[in-house]
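Quick one: structure for this chain?
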Amino acid sequence: MASDDSEKTAWWKFKYFFKLYWKIIFTITWNLLLSSLFLGNNSLVSKCYYVFNLMAGYWVTQCLPLGMTSLLPLLLFPCLGILSIRDTGACYINDATMILIGGFILATAIEDSNLHMRIALKVIQVFSYNHYSLLSGVILVTYFLSMWITSTAATSMMVPIVLAVLGGLEREGIGRVFINTENLENPNGQPIPTDLTTTYLMGTAYAAMLGGSSTLVGSPSNLAFKGIFEKIFVCGPKIGFWQWMMFAVPFTLVIVVMTVIITFFFMSRQLNQHNSQSSQNTGIIGQNRNAMKKVMGEKYAELGKMTTDELGVAIMFVLFIILLVTREPGFMPGWASILPGEQIPESASILFVSLLMFLIPKDLDFLYVWTNDSNKRPKTSSEGLVTWKSIETRMPWSLLFLLGAGVALIYGAEVSGMSSILEKNFKDSLDGQEPDNILSAMLIFVGIVTNITPDVVTANIMLLYISCMSTSANLNPLYMVPGALMCSYSFVSSFGSPSIAIIRSACHVRVKSVILRGLGPAILIYFLLPIFYTNFGAKYVYLDGTQSVDWSNKTLITENELITNTCDQSIVPP
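Got it. Here's what it folds into:
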């Protein structure tokens, strides 16, 4: 062994060293390269370019953990004189990050109570006639769940349910879940999902991405947009839950329907080609309604009766929806107008519900405090519907730092003048271009980037360019809305989509299957999103959503100065 090692060439050892320690090497060399390019000039613009490019390189390569890179503005902006530590730190705590925290607490309560399992199995049970309807049920319930919890959490919840359902059907002689790969070319002996299983899993991932993008709380890139937009356009409209959903929900529903048709195409090939290997693996010709009903009935019966914990979380979930609807209903005064505060944050609803879930007991043991039976009398107080112990170990701190870093970068670019230079450059290149062409080109570019970087990283990097592009071309900065939506749509790669990464990691879905099946939805998005925004969003949801508006002139009005400055922050009555 020693002689073999001694025969290794210096070049081989160098490559081996680089393979092991490339992250450290890139972290140092990238910093040195950018320092030599930008820090020689003492201007704030050059310093901001340095920070922006440094973080972009670290984020894309992930040579440092994403959360650690996201804390760099807290170090570099004060040290380089771009922003004070107070102004930088304020970017990390805003309405968007509070929505993320509240949404995560609600998602944790739903998962811990097993309410998601009951909802999913009940909906799927209604659709359990054949594989076409069953897949529709899976897509529908995943879409709904991912609207209110993150798309990543929804996928993590639904994949075990889908596999359990398919496993039950397999035991009934209806198809197979995995292919036996013991004798195939697979060094790890990992089972490969059948084409039918892959169709179910990909449909689940697509539904999670689309459902998550339809609400603010469902996708981190949506929250990144809200934080960035409201920081740099202080006099612009406040993007709330319903203002976002009025555009995103109709659009995603159209894409969901067309995605179901695409998945049906793949499924029909698997179910109807009698002599193909796929047909032999699935073993399904025609309908198997009775067997499916039996399997779904057994799965749902295993849950037992609805527990007090589930009921309490369900009530809190409904309360959250009611608070959203009645906040500013438009046709009557909402509860936000009754409160004495002038600016009620959009996160108030979710934070209030989160607080209640810590207080409301998860069982009814407290009712027996006054009983004379010592055996029934509780010895300790009941836990709440959610506990801090379950929150602190699962809180996505890295994601919170990512959202704050995006806001800090954009704000630093505004203060330093970096965005003004970008706007000037865009103005020279975009002069005379049609708005529709600008929007389409922008979305294609964002769509490419989001397939190679995480969605919230794409949003943090690209939304700066989109805001500068829109203002320089005399367009409404709400062009950032379709740009933020596009950040969530990584259909052909697991690099930018946590949902696809989950199914690839859990079920070893092949890369070829991900690419071939994802091309259809990806092309649909590229084609329909600009058309949908121009003809529906800009005309009926965000009025004058393609025209320049007064509030797009970024004057860096602070929130304190809003007391003496009047801003029109309305979009359209929800």
